[in-house]
């Protein structure tokens, strides 16, 4: 449910209420775990138009579900107007006929806040749509890092950290009376910007009011669910045991086969060969024994979440090493916005297209005053009349937010003028953004910079287009450049 990290994800719109993430004391009193300062928006109801815009109309290229469009309920990567990246789960039509029931279930899950959860921040029940909105975590799923790695296999210490952190998440849900988690598996574990594993809150709701609770292979499904079709708290422990098998083996092993290996004392055949030399036999035996206990056929014979925590906590031997270091991930430095940003720069940073439009309207063409302008020096000809009329109609369309017409008029104007106008490129660029064409908007912002190499507006609009394209590092650089030229201009005025 996530691949990319937004460097503007911490830039919130003014009306977005933020609440600090709950940070309970670690179960181990002497554990000095570095806490995140991640802030999570309060749970709220979203409008369908807002989520449609965030996902570019539920565009197929933004699907992040492991099964793609074939998934019964598809998850999309989205970006809210304030710049925050989100994961949007869209349920199949009529999955939850009763909107109030869906809202009630979602709101209950939305009350949970924990650093080990991918927190739920909203839902939508408009019409027959049923959507959930959660935080977006950028560093892929446990499934990707275990089964489809391309740089390095997940090290032993990171695997036991996953086991511990997920046990923490389950214990918190249990304490908050959310004891049922549907289909816990390696796809439900995601890694945040720090490389820390978190448990998706999507699994706290069924895929439909009366639908299945499990979508994985029947070989991994708790026995009692096969018998009765019901999920009980002990079913979650069974599924946790299957995740332990994934962590131990680095591959999908059906529980029945794994238990045969364990009973036959063939633990070495169970272990991932890439982990050789990274763990002690004693630690491996403890984790194997815990997995065996979780996978007991009778639900009453399985341990509870407190036992999971007490069993995996002692296996954490490198607590001082950050997760992103263990995983070999490069951790981006936190975004620090330039201190000197004009209102336009700030509007571009928070990707507020409406504010950008208002500012460009008010600025008009005054930034180009004094620049060579063919309109001032050519003889009055029919060509000049055409240029003036085309510019007028383009400006009217831009003012009236008829951006398709503005694009057409400004494109004609660019072809007519022998000396291009930076403002025309800027206006056409914003029109492209409003029309959902960020690549063309970036091209026009770059053309505006060619016209006026030190024009802050050109840099700010490039930053905005780059953010829309998901190129956050480059966008940050452009914001910095724009602010630098802003400061240079201010200093020249003072002098």
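-> sequence recovered:
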């Amino acid at each position: 449910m996530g691949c990319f990290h937004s460097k503007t994800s911490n830039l919130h719109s003014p009306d977005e209420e933020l609440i600090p993430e709950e940070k309970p004391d670690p179960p181990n009193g002497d554990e000095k775990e570095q806490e995140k300062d991640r802030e999570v928006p309060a749970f709220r109801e979203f409008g369908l138009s807002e989520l449609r815009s965030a996902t570019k109309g539920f565009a197929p290229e933004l699907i992040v579900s492991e099964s793609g469009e074939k998934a019964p309920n598809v998850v999309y990567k989205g970006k809210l107007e304030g710049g925050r990246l989100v994961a949007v789960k869209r349920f199949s039509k009529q999955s939850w006929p009763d909107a109030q029931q869906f809202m009630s279930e979602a709101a209950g899950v939305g009350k949970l806040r924990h650093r080990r959860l991918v927190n739920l921040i909203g839902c939508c029940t408009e019409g027959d749509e049923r959507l959930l909105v959660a935080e977006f975590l950028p560093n892929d799923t446990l499934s990707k890092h275990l089964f489809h790695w391309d740089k390095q296999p997940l090290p032993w210490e990171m695997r036991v950290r996953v086991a511990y952190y997920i046990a923490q998440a389950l214990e918190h849900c249990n304490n908050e009376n959310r004891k049922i988690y549907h289909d816990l598996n390696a796809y439900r574990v995601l890694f945040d910007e720090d490389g820390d594993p978190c448990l998706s809150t999507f699994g706290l709701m069924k895929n439909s009011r009366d639908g299945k609770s499990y979508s994985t292979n029947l070989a991994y499904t708790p026995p009692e669910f096969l018998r009765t079709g019901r999920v009980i708290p002990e079913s979650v422990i069974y599924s946790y045991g299957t995740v332990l098998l994934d962590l131990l083996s680095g591959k999908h092993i059906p529980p029945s086969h794994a238990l045969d290996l364990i009973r036959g004392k063939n633990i070495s055949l169970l272990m991932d060969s890439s982990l050789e030399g990274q763990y002690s036999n004693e630690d491996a035996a403890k984790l194997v024994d815990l997995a065996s206990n979780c996978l007991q056929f009778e639900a009453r014979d399985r341990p509870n979440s407190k036992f999971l925590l007490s069993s995996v906590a002692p296996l954490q031997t490198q607590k001082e090493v950050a997760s992103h270091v263990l995983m070999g991930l490069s951790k981006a430095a936190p975004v620090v916005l330039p201190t000197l940003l004009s209102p336009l720069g700030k509007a571009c940073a928070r990707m507020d297209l409406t504010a950008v439009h208002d500012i460009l309207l008010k600025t008009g063409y005054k930034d180009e005053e004094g620049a060579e302008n063919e309109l001032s020096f050519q003889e009055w000809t029919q060509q000049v009349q055409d240029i003036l009329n085309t510019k007028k109609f383009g400006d009217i369309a831009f003012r009236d937010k008829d951006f398709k017409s503005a694009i057409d008029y400004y494109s004609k104007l660019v072809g007519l003028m022998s000396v291009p106008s930076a403002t025309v490129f800027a206006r056409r660029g914003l029109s492209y953004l409003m029309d959902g064409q960020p690549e063309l908007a970036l091209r026009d912002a770059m053309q505006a910079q060619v016209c006026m190499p030190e024009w802050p507006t050109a840099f700010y609009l490039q930053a905005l287009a780059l953010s829309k394209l998901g190129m956050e590092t480059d966008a940050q650089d452009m914001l910095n450049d724009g602010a630098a030229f802003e400061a240079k201009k201010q200093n020249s005025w003072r002098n």
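The beta strands are 18-20, 39-41, 44-45, 74-79, 85-90, 117-118, 120-124, 131-135, 189-191, 197-200.
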